[in-house]
Amino acid sequence: MLRIRESQMSSLRSAAMDSRVAQLVTALLAEPSAAEPGWTRERLEPVVRRVVDRGIFSLDDVRVYVQLAESLGDDFESQRRHAWMRSWLDDASVSDPVARLHRVVRERRRREDVAAQNQRKEAAFRLRHAPPGEGR
Q: According to the UniProt entry, which residue ranges have a biased composition of type Basic and acidic residues (predicted)?
């Protein structure tokens, strides 16, 4: 009898998760920003499922994850160059999955800022040290 209850609880949890994913996908597709070409229910559902499976349920936080997927690729977590993101999203030393997500977003912004700053410095250096008559 205990097995039946465990099985029933598992089925109920799965149905609740499926329902939450469907609600979130519907809400995201109803937003004007979802007009981005290519965001269909079929494409969006696995992305939303991944974030819900991580324990992130609020529309605002799911939107943050979807924006990452939009800019980095639907499968960004499995891309080698973004392995640090998956590691940080899986980091059990931070108990709140929402905190892990926001930590990833902050670090991504920081890295983008550093890269942009380095590009500006490199361009300024090249301009400063260009041979006479080039770029001046």
A: 110-125
